[in-house]
Each structure stands twice: as C-alpha cells, then as structure tokens.
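tool=predict chain=A
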Amino acid sequence: MRKLPYKRSKSKGAKYYIDFIEVSSDGVSRKLTRSSRTTDYKLACQIQKKLQGEAAKRIHGVINPKEDEVLKSGSLPVSATIAEFTESLQAARVSKVYLRQIVMVITRLSKSCSDKPVNNLSLRDAEKFSVSMMNQGLGVSTIHQFLGYVKRYGRWLDSSGKVFQDPFRHLKRTMKGHEPRKRRALLREEVAALCKYLDNAPDSFMHTGKERKALYLFAIRTGLRINEIAQLNTKNFVFGTSNFVRLAKSITKNKQDAKLFLGESVGMQMESLLSDGRAAPFRINSYVQDNAAKMLRRDIEACRKASRKPLPFLSTNGVDFHALRHTCGAWLCWEGVSIQVVQKIMRHSSIQLTIDVYGHLLPDEIETVVAKTDSAFAAHLPPV
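tool=predict ok
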C-alpha cells in the first residue's frame, strides 16, 4: 500500500489516487483505493489525511462502522428501497398476490410521506397514511391489512440495517371509533336490474357491458374472489353435461383444490366468452383487480340513473366486489341449502365460520322439527 498520493497515468490531466485501510460494518479490515478527483498534489494529500483519519476512528472504535453504514443507507428515499424490499420478499417465497399488494401499499406510503429518506420515517407518517386511506373510503379491515404491510416494511428496514430502529414498532392497527364496514348481499331484484342495464352498457375498466355482466354472475355463482378469478384461464373450465371450473390449490386462499359447478346459464355465458379463442375469460390486470369494487359500484350507480322508474332497492351501501361472494352464500341459505353444503361451496376452513357469517340467514327449522316429532311423542303419551 502506498503511503502518498500517486498517479496511475503519466498524462498531464491524470488525477491522484489514495490508498488507505478501511473497516467494514462486519469488523473486517481491507485496503481501499479512492480517486482524489484532483490533479493538485497538496489537495490530494489533504484528502488522504481526512480519509485516513476517519478510517482510524473506525479502527479504534471511535466511530461504529455499522452506524456509519446506516447513516449512508438511511439517506435513501422510500421509493429507492422498494426494489431491495421486493427482492427480500421474493426470497421469502411469498405469493405473487401478496407481493403485488405489499409493493402497492409501500408505494402509496412513499407518496403519502413525500418520499422522504427512510431514516426520517416516524410513527406519524404511518398514522397520516392511515388517515388518508380512511378518507379514500377504504374499510377498516382493509386498512388493518395495509398497516400490517407497513409494519413488515418497518421490520425489514431495521433488520437490513437501513435504520437504527424500526420506525413503526409502536404502530397499532386498532382504530377506535371506527366501525368495520358492513358488507351485504345483493337482492335478486338488484342483480336483475343490473344485468338488464349491462346488456347495453358502455365499455368500462377494459370490459364491455356484457363481459362485466358475465363477471358479476360468475362471481355470484361460484363465490370466487377477484384475485382468484384473475388467475383463471381456459384450462380451468370444463363444459359438457356438467359445466364446472377447476381451481388448483396454488390459486385458492385455503390452499386446497376446488371444483365449482357453474350451472347451465352461467356455463353457457362462460363458454361463449371463451369461444373466440381468448386465453382467459376476463381481462383482469392489476388495475382492474385493485378497482373491482369501484367498477361494481359505478355500474350500480349508472343503472340507477339510467332507469326510467325509481329503484329504491338498488344501492351501493355495503357493496364491494367481495359482496358478490357474500351474495353467493346468502342466496344458498335463502334457498334452504344445508350449512354443510354452503361451507363446501364457499370453501370455508371450518363449519363454525360458515355459521358465524350465514347462520342468521338459515330458515328456522325448530317449528318444522317439532311438528314432525309430535306424532312420535303422542304415541308414547297416555290419553288425556
């Protein structure tokens, strides 16, 4: 290692280079060579003394190399860390849907905090982001989920050495005073009016009116979620004596294979959509997937405005795309289908979950059971 600045070239405009010993964050010493970026020998000597002085402080523990590295990486804005954060999530083998959602949330967080450096992030930034989501009309459960993504990002910043301490370690996802948004099932009259409007509706969200009609009816018939529908292609559908869609466990939320029957009318619609050689029944990209609820509510509002007579039963209150799944379970219960069959169609993890969600919609069978067993009781009772 050379003790004085030196030139690598004999040309007139060559700059001086400097050798010095540096200590990395893991405590390993190594020789480094840096350009002084000057052709002045005296100025190069001054730069060398400065670099050697800082290196000596790290060697003798006056400056913690790890803290020094955190200060350098912490000056990066939030947007500049998203790519590295994405790579860490991919290494953890998270699902594609989870990865897309969490990257979308951190991108929104970056815009909410004006893309400030990560070492300047604080709990206040997360709370401000939470308020902005509430103002956008997002439900409490969705906000809780998104704040969970923010907390994971904060833990990664801490573990990767980007910050001294997790800025969101005290973030609480409970929001007092805000009731969860109540999701409701659509009435048959609402679906009938909506389908009638969509037959001649203009294009919206990359789909024609008839395609959106088929999408809504398909979701009501199968109870599939929007992210599950987005992953379907022609290979998932079987048409014939019985029309059904087959889902691999890699698609479903409960990680189990599923086979859902479409019936005659919905089966014919899906077969008609796939008859033109398209690879998938619907064109659901990330934009449509994120705005599926807005698409449905916009169609309901347009249906109500386009109707010549008032439709008091048609409302967007409690309606998002997941409400179509809720409509599937509710209609099954209204038809008197047993709770065990409802559980299988909705693909719930337990019968208790199905009872908690749809139990109040089941018909009261107590009076019927008492009437059927009345004769049996009477046969064993003495005459009055």
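The chain has a mean pLDDT of 84. The beta strands are 6-7, 16-23, 29-35, 237-238, 244-247, 258-261.
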